[in-house]
Amino acid sequence: MSDTQVPAVDLDGITKRFGDVVANDGVDLSLEKGSVHALVGENGAGKTTLMSVLYGLYEPDGGTISVDGEPREFDSPRDAIDAGVGMIHQHFQLVDTMTVVQNVVLGHEPAERGLVDEGSARRDIEEICATYGFDVDEHLDTRVEDLGVGVQQRVEIVKSLYRGADVLVLDEPTAVLTPQEVEGLFDVMTELTERGRSLIFITHKLDEALAVADHITVLRDGESVGTVEASETTREELARMMVGRDVLFDYPARETSPGAVTLGVDDLRVEDDRGLEQVGGVDLEVREGEVFGVAGVDGNGQAELVEALTGLRSAESGTVTFDGRDVTDASRRERIDAGIAYVPEDRQEEGLVQDYDLVRNALLGNQTVAPYVENGFVDWGAVRTHAEDIVEQYDVQPPNAEAEAGSLSGGNQQKFVVGRELEHQPDLVVASHPTRGVDIGSIEFIHERLFEMRDAGMAVLLVSSKLDEVQKLSDRIAVMYEGEFVGMVDPDEVTEEELGLLMAGRSPDSGGASAEASADAPPESVVDDGESTSDGGVES
Amino acid sequence: MSVGDYAARNRTAIGGGAIAVVLLAVVAAVFDLPVGELLTVGMAERSLRAATPIALAAIGGLYAEKSGVFNIGLEGFMILGALTAAAGTWIVSGEGSITQVDLWFGVLAAIVVCALLTVIFAVLTIRYEADQIVAGLAVWFIGLGFGPFTATVIWGGVSSPSLPNIDNVTVPLLAEIPVLGRVLFDASPLVLFTILITAVAWVVLYRTRYGYWVQAAGENPEALDTAGVDVNRVRYATVIFSGAMAGLAGAVLSIGIGSGFTGTGVTMVDGRGWIAIVAYLFGNYNPVGAFAASLLFGATDMLQVQFQTVGISLPGSIVGLFPYAAVLVVLTLVGYTRVPAAVGEPYDTEE
Amino acid sequence: MSGNGARAVLDRTADRMVHATAVERLAIAVASTLLALALGAVVVAASGYDAVEFVSSLAYGAFGSKSNVAFTLRQSTMLIIAGVAVAVAFRAGVFNIGVQGQFVVGGFATSVTILFLAPYLPTGTVGGVLLIVFGTIAAILAGGAYAALPGLMKAYADANEVITTIMLNFIASGVVFYLVDSQLRPSGAAAPNTEQFPDYVELPSLVFDSSSFSVVGLGVALATVIVVAVVMSRTRFGYDLVTSGYQESAAAYSGVDPKRTVVTTMTFSGMVAGLTGAMFAIMILGYYSDPATFPRFGFDAIAVSLLAANNPLGVVPAGILFGGLDAGGQYIGFTLDVPSELVDGVVGLVVLFVATPELFRMAGRRTGLGGDRK
Fold first, then answer.
1. Chain C neighbours among B 188-227 (CB < 8 Å)?
2. Where do the H-state alpha helices sit in chain B?
3. CATH of domain B11-26+34-334
4. How far is A381 from chain C (nearest CA, A)?
5. I need a surface site. Which of A79, B219, B237, B327 has the fewest CB within 10 A?
6. pLDDT at C41 over 80
7. Domain locations in chain B?
8. Residue A181 sits in the same domain as residue A275
9. Using a CB-CB distance cutoff of 8 angstroms, which residues of chain A are in contact with residue B213?
């Protein structure tokens, strides 16, 4: 790729500890100039920590950083920026209430007589956009919060380039994009490398790494497993390197056939906190013994749909029936009591009280259930027994009901939540991104439990943005886009490509240019804040 | 930003203002108040004076909160400012006849002392991550305690003797203009300074790089940090500025427009620091808006005087409650204001 | 997905730091109080008084004689009940700064009830007990209602409760003064006071021979503590309330209506605050007066509750400590001529330090006293 011997960035033996946890253990990485270097690994493998060290956010406990052959020590991002290293964070580092121009120049404002010279800033940004063919200059005076996710990401890239970055680190840039937007991003990345920039691309999606990278470094448990040439490796080899064993994706066949309708939704409309319609007339039915999957890019109304079904948000219009009863106006409490279990998207904020031990968390949602609560008084002995049962049956580690929820890893937290919800013996389980930020072992465990529920005749509504998960678990899949179901497909027949097009709001057979613009910027795309698994080794 | 945009962004504030005006009109109609006689030039002048301390504290407070630190201690700092100004004047004058220079020294002392005290407050809230609400309340208690205490040490009672206040500045000729002349060109220099600082605060916040940093520090501190600006440094600056402004506001109360320090009950500050917080919320964190809201509260405060002048007999203890009631009405009707996203959260760069 | 990864670890570590162990809390409470007192002594010395005499007089004023102890316990009784009122709200994550106002309103309700009902009830012990009971119930209801108001404003209009409750304190004080002064002042009287309650409306003097303190009052305070502690730790209501305080989103997920919880929390807190007012009117005053002249129990209670880490049981020792401080402060006001406002300032310092546990942890680490926390 490049004829120079000096790497753009050379990381040598980087070690970073957080207390007792070793997040990076002697990691090497050498970024060739003008190339894309992918950094892959499971959640918690240490990818983001490594890049935070490179970007001056963390001081390494060992190892050296060289940029362009020069050894460097970065005390702050400013040092990294000065050395020409830019970072596009997964959670965009943009100030929502400020305009695009203000965001791009933040910290590097051109000033004249004390006042910011927006005119000169504007010219510089327009020049960058012209060079790389970005459309950011169409939105210069728009507040960032009014832009779609794809545009926000390009604003981030322009911001780094404005600061003179030669090396760009992209932290899971595809996580929030539709497959089509991902293609657009890859074009941008190609454009950047052709103009001499060097990129580090963090991902855990192997196909993406193979598609766009020149070199791939695999991290596992904070250590570098090895670096390979993208052209000389395979998906399977990378997967083995990532997890240390062959991944089995073999699930039991569907045996039962669905029964009576458990959940019925008719023309449901839901608004978000700002009064904007997020669910615009959804119809669906979930039957006993059936997994109904809702696929879609985050922020297309799934969260509001789930909240309306579980009673956390009231519907504007339409009806929700459960076991034949109209529960449209039922409170969250009434729905829990009726038998709707809910595995929430955000276990840290909703599913668990972080500062409570598991005993006290076992009561969460069960406040009206005997024998735990009778006549308004809590029987903590009964609750403790319940908590210990969940811990045992759902293999929660460490097996200690007195552990604080916040001290558990993401996977174990999730197993506890799933256990608590399923132990209600519900008629319906609403599972929202049940395996997000969860290690592979726990994913399989949770998937098996959901299958058991299905086979026991419960209805399951699964919301997920992971295509493989939706496809493997569901009996039927609805694709949600901009608040509506744009397609209903059979998981055994649909291809990932077709699902991707539906998720971008296009029907698989048309895909015309008209959809291109809107695919870029779903008006109310929300940057996902729900992901909070740690890269610092909590997945122990 | 176009006017339309501005209106859209601030519809709560504008709506709230409209509601307030309508309510006042309804009250006037119901009680058959002689509105014409209430709205006099004297009323405008007094309202502006009453608004001055509120506006000063509000502008300081909004900078702190905009940058992510809720300085709920404004009331306490105002008490200490009022006390320091009176005490400084008293001491420098050698306890004798007090000159204008002595008074200005008092004002300066209040600003400096409160700024220094806010340094401690800032260190505790920013460096040591103290709970901002609790620490702010503590400042109020400290003011309520040490203010009258110090007054007793100096004057032997919780209040100072009657002190003169700062002379008006009269601009020849301009002061002759009807209404405006009397309000603006024959006024306390502190009133004029408040108008000036409102404008400057607006320019700094929205047009300078420092203003960008303040906004970013409160909305997305990580974005500012990754841009290489020290978030906590920005916050220190705004919090100390808010303390200095509260000190000045207190000085205005005691020797700027008042006549010495009163330390009985809840002291002469009497909730104005709290009202200042509501003023900037009502003004949607915009210095100009905060000033306008302060003017509204100032006018409510002055209704008492005005009622007396026109001979409406309402008990003073009840009319004196109007500003507090106004605050409740405003908070309830305006309701949701968009609070900067990172307010109250300490910012750590590493470990 | 590893986005804010390491950040989460940091957050969690920080969380663990904030939610300290009981022992550590106790150490911080003691250190806060001592440091505040030390600063108070420095201020006293700087103001030209004798700091040593200040401290010893403070202690003597609090616990030096039987009547001083009675005065301390009288103040403690008020601070314990009011402290519980604050703790209930703070535990649920609602900043009820309006305990003072609710206390004023509660006491007013008691006074009005007693003064208006007295002519219709028999005199003597039976009438006294009835009047006390009715007066107390009126105070609890009035305090609850007055606190429900900012609760409703927060829940349904998103109005910041810190500010609304403070405004309502001013309003309570002003309106009650107006009513006492213009409606309840006997004609011809100079002071804005109501008539005295009938003699038989008083708590029995046991153990201490004091006209303004009865052990029965302290018993009411301790009973309140026990009831509230049981409610908070052993009932569904308490679980819902505390869960809302820790993590509102998780409470909502578990079927707790967050808006209703805010209102019930405020009401519950205000009811306890109202009880403080009843005790104040019945046990201490025996009539009602201008609230501007009342002790600021409702504010000192904030310090009491914070010092107790908002735990109802912890409010008892914290209340006794502050009761002693208060009594000692008034004593030095009489004897040493050190202005008693000083103690208000010291209370403020205690609150400031309690809000800053990190300060003591750091000091503990520096000196190697606090033990290592990872």
1. none
2. 3-9, 11-30, 35-38, 41-66, 74-92, 100-122, 132-155, 180-184, 189-207, 209-219, 221-226, 231-251, 272-282, 287-310, 316-319, 322-334
3. 1.10.3470
4. 11
5. A79
6. yes
7. 11-26+34-334
8. no
9. 106-107
Highest-scoring range by mean pLDDT, A326-335, A480-489, C337-346: A326-335
Q: Give the Cα separation of A131 and C186 in Å (integer).
A: 87
Task: Write the ipTM.
Answer: 0.84
CA A175/CA C113 separation, integer angstroms: 66
Same domain, yes or no, for A228 and A287? no
Angle at A315 between CA A309 and CA A319, to 5 degrees: 70
The phi and psi torsions of B170 (rounded to 5 degrees) equal: -115, 120
A381 and A278 in one domain? Answer: yes
For CA atoms C117, C120, C126, C128, the dihedral sign is: positive
Closest approach of B19 to chain C, Cα-based (Å): 15
Residue A252 lies in a domain: no
Query: A278 and A227: one domain?
Result: no
Confidence of residue A527 (pLDDT cuts 50, 70, 90): very low
Query: Apex CA A411: angle with CA A528 and CA A235, to 5°?
Result: 75
User: Per-residue pLDDT tens for B90-111?
Assistant: 999 887 788 899 999 999 999 9
Strand A167-171 versus strand A85-88 pairing type: parallel
- Could you tell me if A356 and A475 lie in one domain? yes
The set of chains that have 3 or more CB pairs under 8 A with A is B, C
Dihedrals φ, ψ of A469, to 5°? -65, -50
Flag if C253 and A312 touch (Cβ within 8 Å): yes
Residue whose tokens read 């001083």: C68
- Alpha-carbon distance A67 to A72, whole Å? 7
| C16: contact with A, CB 8 A cutoff | yes
Q: In whole angstroms, give the CA distance from residue A185 to residue B124.
A: 45
Lowest mean pLDDT among A149-153, A324-328, B27-31: B27-31
Nearest CA distance, B211 vs chain A (angstrom):
10
Token pair of A87 as six digits: 């970072």
**B chain contacts of residue C12, beta-carbon cutoff 8 Å:** none
Asked if residue A251 is part of any domain, the answer here is no
Q: Which residue has the higher pLDDT, A169 or A5?
A: A169
The per-residue pLDDT for range A365-398, each reduced to its tens digit, is 999 988 899 999 999 999 999 999 999 999 888 8
Does A94 fall in a domain? Answer: yes
Residue A540 belongs to some domain of the structure = no
Phi then psi for residue A139, to 5 deg, are -120, 20
Pair A413, A510 in one domain: yes
List chain B residues with CB under 8 Å of A95: 215-216, 219-220, 223-224
Closest CA to B143 of C46, C341, C296: C341
Starting at the earlier edge strand, list the strands of the sheet with A9-18.
A21-31, A9-18, A62-67, A70-72
* pLDDT of C269 over the 80 cut: yes
Q: How far does Cα C186 stand from its chain's mean position?
A: 31
Task: Check whether A472 has a pLDDT greater than 70.
Answer: yes
Rg (CA), chain B: 20
For position A515, which CATH number holds? 3.40.50.300
Contact: C374, A20; criterion CB under 8 Å: yes
- A314: domain range? 261-520
Half-sphere exposure of C188 (CA within 13 A, CB side): 1
Cis peptide upstream of residue C122 (ω within 30 degrees of 0): no
Half-sphere exposure of A323 (CA within 13 A, CB side): 9
Structural domains present in chain C: 22-367 (1.10.3470)
Side-chain half-sphere of A371: how many Cα atoms within 13 Å? Answer: 8
A267 and A232 both lie in a single domain:
no
CB B319, CB B303: distance < 8 Å: yes
Integer angstrom CA distances of residue A401 from A357, C12, C247: 7, 19, 20
